[in-house]
Description:
By secondary structure, the protein is an alpha+beta fold. It is 50% helix and 12% strand. The strands form three sheets. The protein has a four-stranded antiparallel beta sheet, with helices on one face. A three-stranded mixed beta sheet has the order 1-4-5. Strand 2 and strand 3 form a beta hairpin. Helix 4 (86-105) runs antiparallel to helix 5 (108-120). The longest helix has 37 residues, at 251-287. The chain is globular, with a radius of gyration of 21 Å. The chain starts with 11 loop residues before the first helix and ends with a helix. Flavin-adenine dinucleotide (FAD) binds at residues 94, 127-130, 135-136, 161-163, 217, 220, 225, 378, 381-382, 384-385, 387-388. Residues 94, 127-130, 135-136, 161-163, 217, 220, 225, 378, 381-382, 384-385, 387-388 line the site of flavin-adenine dinucleotide (FAD).
Amino acid sequence: MAVAGSLIDKTDEQQAITDMVRQFADEQILPNAEHYDAEDEFPEPIVEQMKELGLFGVTIPEEYGGMGLDLTTYAMIVEELSRGWISISGIVNTHFIGSYLLMKFGSDGQKQKYLPQMATGELRAAFSLSEPEVGSDVQSLKATAKKTDDGDYELNGQKMWVTNGLMSGIVFVLVKTDPDAEPRHRGMTCFIAEKEAGVSENTGEHAGFSVPPKIRKLGYKGVESTELVFDGYRCPAENVLGGEDAGLGKGFAQMMDALEVGRVNVAARGVGIAQRSLELALRYSQERKAFGKPIAEHQAIQFKLADMATQVEAARLMTMRAARLKDAGERSDLEAGMAKLFASEAGCMCVEQSFRIHGGYGYSKEYEIERLYRDAPLLLIGEGTSEIQRMVIGKKLLQRHKI
Length: 403
Ligand SMILES: Cc1cc2nc3c(=O)[nH]c(=O)nc-3n(C[C@H](O)[C@H](O)[C@H](O)COP(=O)(O)OP(=O)(O)OC[C@H]3O[C@@H](n4cnc5c(N)ncnc54)[C@H](O)[C@@H]3O)c2cc1C
């Protein structure tokens, strides 16, 4: 079935790459998502194909083996992957945030060391701010890193909700290096913590870094979300993001910068899942008959379709605008917050409307909308909840319009 059209202009390159990813989603992700979701199993064969397609290196510069594409094109790709299954975009997204952190703040040595392996997907990244007692209020985090006599840093503490926590080989982790710093954010540093991918109890040079069993979740299955436990884990000073001289005490600012692009990321996921729920509703409403005609001919159903399509288009336009501003080097904090807020709420709204259109069958595992219904709420939480987005938007609005 043809999908609903879009108002977004694409360059020939963007059209070619999004066509390729859409075909990949149609042929490889959508037919297999139900299996991996039901088993909560890491979709290794899909990830292997994504490596071959170069999807882990989309934004990494060509000199490091990536495609060197911009955030706008990346957002288009994320939309297509999420239309297939948001767990697949989750495997790429924290990796993307890690590569963004390295490209923007990493030292030359760090870029040389990690980016080529990240571009191929051989080395994948995770991004860790949250802790068991801390999510929105990042400055209250408790994990620490203390310099030892031999010049390394010793990390201690517990992290929570780390997407790709097990399968990643490096984790960009924010910890306190100066617990007495005022303001508190000046005492936080981002470390590039290395570990063995897929191993829960690290030994040898990575001893003291363990990954407890994955958290059991409502949706967003297949991609693991884990705690991380640092217990005397040694991290060399050269693994401070940007190097010790440039990066010590800068972690909070670095992570907040990365969250801004992360918000465009999540917004694109919202567009993808909203788009898919619209496609499912368009199809089902023309197949299902009630009161002697396809339900699509009942005006109440058409109104739902109309609202959904309008939300999808608006969410996509806002997401693209935020991405394009960022690519143009313009301020995009307000726009990224708005896009994340609108597109994640639109994703949930469209999934719910599509679920309603499916009637009782929407509640059955036989229909794809059941998975989308469990997956969509994550959008309201990750990269800052809707409440936090409203706080960001309000603050930025007042800054821009100060009288
Ligand atoms: C599946 C999944 C994957 C995740 N992946 C990652 C990851 O890879 N890396 C990572 O670091 N984190 C990750 N997270 C964590 C996520 O970023 C946090 O859950 C999120 O930031 C919210 O934090 P919290 O859960 O502690 O909620 P809290 O901060 O405890 O908030 C609880 C409620 O209070 C509201 N609230 C909080 N403060 C205010 C306020 N000032 N005003 C109004 N309302 C407020 C919130 O909006 C929310 O409704 C993930 C979470 C999930 C569920």
